[in-house]
Amino acid sequence: MAAACSPAFLPAQVPVIPAPATVILRSGTWLPSVSLPADLALTGDEALARAGIDVQVVPGSALVDPESYSLDVSSKGVTLIAPSAAGRFYGLVTLQHLVNVGRDVAGAVRIPALTIVDSPRFPYRGMHLDVGRHFQPVAFVKRYIDLMARFKFNVFHWHLTEDQGWRIEIKKYPRLTEVGGCRAETMVEKRFDPYVGDGTPHCGFYTQEEIREVVAYAAERFVTVIPEIEMPGHSLAAITAYPELACTDGPFAVRTTWGVSEDVLCPSERTFEFLQDVLTEVLDLFPSPYIHIGGDEAPKKRWKESPLAQEVIRREGLKDEDELQSWFIRRIERWLAERDRRLIGWDEILEGGLAPGATVMSWRGMSGGIAAAQQGHDVIMTPGSHVYFDHYQGDPRFEPLAIGGLTTLERVYGFEPIPEALTASQSRHVLGAQANLWTEYLKTPAAIEYMAYPRAVALSEVLWSSRERRDWGDFLGRLPYALRTLDMLRVNYRVPDVIGLEGDALTLGTRIPVALFTPMGGAIIRYTVDGSDVTMASPLYRGPFELPVPAEGVTLTARVFVRDGRASAPRSATFRRTTYREAERLGRRSTTGGLRLTYVEAAVRSTAAIDSLQAERTEVIARVRRPGNERPEQYALRFDGYLDVPQDGLYEFALTSDDGSVLDIGGARVVDNDGLHGSEQKSGMIALRKGPHPFVVRYFQAGGGAELGLFVRRAGEEWREVPAEWFRHAP
Ligand code: ACM
Known about the structure:
8-stranded parallel barrel; Chitobiase, domain 2; TIM Barrel; 37 strands; alpha/beta; Immunoglobulin-like; 17 helices; 8-stranded antiparallel beta sheet; binds acetamide
């Protein structure tokens, strides 16, 4: 299928995203074409009744989850039953998607008879927006919330204070917005060194009246707004406005560059009085049961050098500055708890001990979330590996400047918020997950929408639909209709790359099958096989074909062109011929299960440095994973052994790591995921004969998040972790 086409309703699927829990389609029967209100979910019952939609909110019905609903469409009309107003809303959101799918060019709407019974997998389905780095107008904040709600997200995490700007009016401290709401200028691109500023002040804040308006607007859409007031780090704008909050005399200025400031709030009584005053006004504005207090990226340098901070450590019997931060957060947590609010903080709040009622937002991978859930705390998963929507979503050569990373639509869709490491009862502490949109490099609403969509559409299904219901191929079949909805709303989403060119590939023959797809309606795919740029004059893709692969290999590049003039970024893959690598002839008894792991403690920035370093120790380990007894950073691992593959075949291996990793098989580099980086996945192929093949995985962890996994698949299979039975080593 080269492009989305009608009929919209295929028998097997109702193209709604997120996929409902159960759908029964009664083919052949249709709801008579009706005229429906434009925005169903926000329409009152009387107007709905006039359109033939019977809405019953029945508390205590068979539907237990307050967000659940059942929707019945027949030739007689539409009946929606929900246990609460929230369920009513989600039922109408689903109906709206059906209407958008079923509307023909003349505007008539035809929906097949069906019954949907639906409820969400997770109670917390969030989207975050940083308005500290780049202030956004109220109208856009509302639009952002409206779009979220159309995909059944229910939490808007509003990141309101930063080093680069304080964005919320606090009546008792007017200088927070007068002074802290403005920075002198903004650094240009990534011109840290030498620094280049744009010479243009950047200012903005929300009045309390505007905040109430946004909170009320969100509530109509069953979205809770969680405010974030950062402490003790990311507070330079507040400190600039009120320098007495710092441990030093300054001078201070609202920050014009990105990064982490060493100037943090000093743990003085003045600071607590200030924070409690600010939070008093915040609680009055936001009915949310949760209040986010940041807690991330707070360097301890100022506290180490501050007599006041050191005196607090002595007075409170604390061990060090980590415990001081923990004490700081506990004090705020207690204050919030006394007012019936719950504290959320980034995973740094684990360091030095978690406050009793705290909920942890896990961002440096999943490990903070795992630790918190194991301690019986609630968790929201927001790992940089899958849901940092400020990361690139395609090849950086063709994308607007972004902070880094690579988080494709498929990677978002593959996100699983419940880690394997948790037991069933621990995993109940995972309330859900959230996408984060940090705006260092996102200045405008259009830029934010480009990064958020369609990735938020993929995340909506991760959060709402059951794990069993999730299927990438099926999702791609439904995605055209979600994109149509985004088109109707004029969302500046990223036109997805051609699907079907996921990476370079090898063939054991002289041809390779090519099957390309675009979820864009009214679009065509063009391609080249000679390395040249794809233009409107390049050959048209007409359907799956077999591409000849010459001895020197061939690069296929393809692009999507939409009727309205939009085009996707180009996407390329290189295909080469290969032959089998013969297995080693080893007696079964010359090897034994597991791998040899060499552990090194050193600060390295490349896997190439590892082999020449002194080993701290060696051990035998069952799989390619972090052993669990390593120090948090500045170490490296080397895994040696044999990969005993069960049959002849073309194998694709992937390394997911933070920081770098490489896989060599028989001395040849198969996966190169080297370098200093956050969580990234890279893959490579090799043809292996059944039997053992010597291999090495090298990995290093410089700082920040730590992650390592080795995955495998064959054509048509899902990725899976390389099974322990495949690993052997010479004892
Ligand atoms: C974060 O990204 N600093 C939470």
